Amino acid sequence: MITIDPVTAVLSVVLFGAFTVPFIYHFQKNKKKDNLLVQNLKDAINAIGGNLDQFESWRHKYAIGLDTQKKVLVYHQEGEIGATFCIPLSEIKKVTVIKKTRELGESKKSVLEQLGLEIHYVSPTKKSSLVEFYNEEFFSDLMGETLLVEKWAELIRTNL
User: Membrane-spanning residues where (predicted)?
Assistant: First the structure.
């Protein structure tokens, strides 16, 4: 049988705790950010008497939701350029996926700068809006945003 002296056992527990505490802290902090993001989204839809049927948040920065009963799209973005808006689907003419790219050096490799939904309105006087899903200024890589933007474009189109 293997015996472990008490000093080694205590030292192992302390080192294990010191290693795991930052991960637990980071997880809890991100969970709070996500909860606040979703709460801001719900507050925006509740302000107009709606109820979120479907919603999604990503990157601890963006959230989008849909009230299929009242036919309202709600979007919230955290940060310096933070925005929250509700758009009745009756005001939307069409939705297109926008991918802004730029070419890198002589290799002509294209890099995605921005990804989002462009919302075109029924009213010709109203300028189209961009619902941002990814911006190169804030993130260096994609984490499923291309699939997410396609999913929400289709979801909005089916509810128009």
Answer: 6-25
DSSP conformation class of 128: P
Q: Which of 73, 137, 64 is nearest to 100 (CA)?
A: 137
Q: Are 135 and 45 a contacting pair, CB within 8 Å?
A: no
In the chain, beta strands by DSSP E: 54-58, 62-67, 72-77, 83-88, 92-104, 109-121, 129-135
Strand-pairing partners, residue 44, are: none
Angle at 160 between CA 151 and CA 93, to 5 degrees: 100
Q: State both tokens at 64.
A: 């989008």
pLDDT in tens, 118-146: 999 998 888 988 889 998 888 878 888 88
In whole angstroms, what is the distance from residue 107 CA to residue 84 CA? Answer: 39
Q: Whose CA is closest to 114, among 141, 96, 140, 134?
A: 134
Q: What is the CA radius of gyration of the chain?
A: 22
Q: Are 17 and 40 in contact, with CB atoms under 8 Å apart?
A: no
HSE, CB side, 13 Å, CA atoms: give it for residue 29: 6
